[in-house]
Amino acid sequence: MSQFVKTCVQGVSSFLGMQGAAGDADEVLEEAMDGMDVTPSQMEQLRGDQVTNNAGGYGWKVDDMDRLRRFLCLGSEGGTYYVKEKALGRQNAECIQRLIREGRGDKVVALVVEYSVQGRAAKQEPIIFALAMCARDENAKVKQLAYDGMTKVCRIPTHLFSFVQYTQALSSGKGWGRAQRRAVATWYRSRSAKSLAMAVTKYAQRNGWTHRDLARLSHLQPHTKAHAAVFRYMVRGYDEMEVIYGAAPSATTAAIEAATPETGTESDSATVSTMDTTPAESDKKPADDSMDVTAAQEPTTNSTTAADGATSSDVATSADGATAADGATAATKVAKEPKVKRKKGEKTVRRCKDPPLEENTQQLAEVITFLRGVQQMKAASSDGQVVSLIAEHGLVREHIPSEFLNSVIVWETLLKNMPMTAMLRNLAKMTSIKLLKPLGEHTKTVCDRLQDASALHKARVHPFDVLLAMTTYSQGRGLKGKLTWEPVQEVVNALDKAFYASFKAVVPTGKRFLLGLDVSGSMWGANIMNTSISAAQASACMALVTAKVEPRHHIVGFSHKLVNVPISPSMNLDSVMEVMQRIPMGSTDCAQPMLYAMKNKLDVDVFIIYTDSETWSGKVQPTVALQRYRRAQNIPDAKLIVVGMTSGGFTIADPEDRNMLDMVGFDSAGPNIIREFSDGNI
Fold it and tell me: If phi over 0 gives left and psi between -120 and 50 gives alpha, with beta otherwise, what is residue 622?
């Protein structure tokens, strides 16, 4: 240390001593002497590879693959304290583009599919968007991998509609390419006819897109009679499906033959697609107004309000300028395929006769019976009828007319076979109508299911979904709407246990953990995935997951100074959220946990810091603080795990230090990642 610095420190020491703060003076001298040099503050660059974060401090830019992981788990909804949602979304999209341009598109697709299939992300939208970007890339290999993965990622029609919406927005062409047509057709054909019938009736449309639109655009062809019946229902509606397929087997065969044109089986195939009877232009508009099913127009008009609140009348005009009224008129016609006029020199594509369809009388009967049940439900006039149809056909909440959704007996029947995710979404409704009440049998049933770890994992229930459900349920009212309820404490307690159970189970490492929670202002200004849960509250819940697993732990909070955070694994999450709301905010100094451990001579094997990495106010950079701690406590392999609670592009983890790891908050595989890194396996 230079004589100048030593003199200055001694001068400060003398001044503080005169003020009766000799202890503080010793700390200043100790801190300065420890490093034996003057290191840059967090507002100064330590190394050439550091960059300025959004708060003005210095850190490292996360690798694009790590940023992709953050985006897949946390999305960009709501933005962060420093970056607005639109800008954050653009930054993440540019990150995906860079990865593809660098030749890592195959790794992007593999990661997207992995996170979706394993249920590691709380929401599917970021995953589907990333997959759509890969599907619309010019790289043929990446495009094919993306479309191959689409059927694994888009497990329900809602996901499929979102995928189509994104690819449409990202497309620079005028129509669908062969790869997209094949992928969408495969999505429908790969499902059993009965499960497809359930899917298309449960999720009829989204953002104005309907199954009829996708069937036409993909030139969808059935391969079994049962699938043909479902496709007919999707494209032409229940009445025509019933006329063609709803009679007795012999009569059905006669009806099909009567409707068959010379060129193929009109009833099974031609109504859904012309299958290359026209050139590429058929991807954009019909060859003739009478063939409404061959038109590849934008989402059709529907009087029902779309899922995002916009009516489908917003997209009522077809690609060639025809209105929905034109389509409705055309939909009443069942005509043979017209001859198509071709321009001079244009190649004629010969229409081949459609291959014979597989016929399974039992499958066809099951599909017809189910679709009849759905239709009968629309006309139900009493609770008894609704209950009977639910029990007979396995119908779900989305099939039930709204006037019966306040009936206790209807919900009692639905609950018997209600999927786990649907049960989470409907806890408030079932409580409001008193189906769930203290000491009730149905309450016990729900609580037992919520605490079943294997059922949670099988249903891909994400920990954040459970946390959000618990937070909302405990409040007794939703963020939107007028529904209120009296929370049942048994359900609250079961949700608390379900949160921990929804993480993948891990074995304790036996190591010593110091868990540091960033409670600075920026963590309170960033809400996770546009919900009411702040990053600060979410970080406390994440820390308790580790604290539950690892018995040797210590929890601290920090902003620009160390902050007392009175939480423990013995507390329920509802209480933790309330405690966190009372903690005062401050500026950000992510070095505080290491400085605290060094000052108090704590032996720590692993530091875990839950933060948005927007550090700037400290005099010592976090990586320097960790290096000093290692020397002071003689623990050279002390590790630092930085848990990113937003999808920003910065980290305090030094990429050149093998004992520092940057990971994503609310990755359901997080506990296992922490264990593997702590044990030195990654």
Answer: alpha
Looking at residue 507, what is its pLDDT? Answer: 84
| CA–CA separation, 232 and 262 (whole Å) | 19
CA distance 625 to 638: 12
Pairing of strands 553-558, 513-518: parallel
Q: Which two tokens stand for residue 618?
A: 């400290």
Q: Is 190 helix (H, G, I), strand (E, B) or coil?
A: coil
Residue 372: both structure tokens together: 């009849």
More confident residue, 128 or 271: 128
- pTM of this structure: 0.70
Give residue-wise pLDDT tens across range 45-90. 777 766 777 666 766 677 888 888 878 887 764 444 344 556 667 8
Cβ contact 345:255 at 8 Å: no
Residue 646's nearest CA partner among 108, 45, 85 is 85
392-406: pLDDT as tens digits: 999 999 999 999 999
List of residues 6+ apart from 227 with CB closer than 8 A: 188, 189, 193, 196
Residue 49: DSSP 8-state: T
**In which element (H, E) is residue 244 found?**
helix 238-245
Q: How far apart are alpha carbons 61 and 44 in whole angstroms?
A: 15
Residues β-bridged to residue 515: 555, 608
Which pLDDT tens digit goes with each residue over 494-553?
Answer: 999 999 998 877 789 999 999 999 888 878 876 776 677 888 888 888 888 888 889 999
Identity of the residue numbered 182: R
210: left (phi over 0), alpha (psi -120 to 50) or beta: beta
Res. 272: pLDDT tops 60: no
pLDDT at 85: 59
Rounded Cα distance, 189 and 366, in Å:
17
Which residue bears the tokens 């692993």? 606
Would you tell me how many other CB atoms lie within 10 Å of the CB of residue 2? 9
φ, ψ dihedrals at 304, nearest 5°:
-75, 145
Res 402: pLDDT: 94
**Cβ–Cβ < 8 Å for 450, 421:** no
Residues 180 and 135 sit within 8 Å (Cβ to Cβ)? yes
Assigned token pair, 568? 């423990």
- 652: closest CA among 600, 681, 596, 614? 614
Residue 645 near residue 523 (C-beta atoms within 8 A): yes
C-alpha to C-alpha distances, 35 to 13, 561, 630, nearest whole angstrom: 17, 20, 12
Give the helix/strand (H/E) hosting 553.
Answer: strand 553-558
Q: Are 10 and 29 in contact (CB under 8 A)?
A: yes
Of 118, 27, 74, residue with least CA distance to 649: 74
Check residues 311 and 669 and name the one with the higher pLDDT. Answer: 669
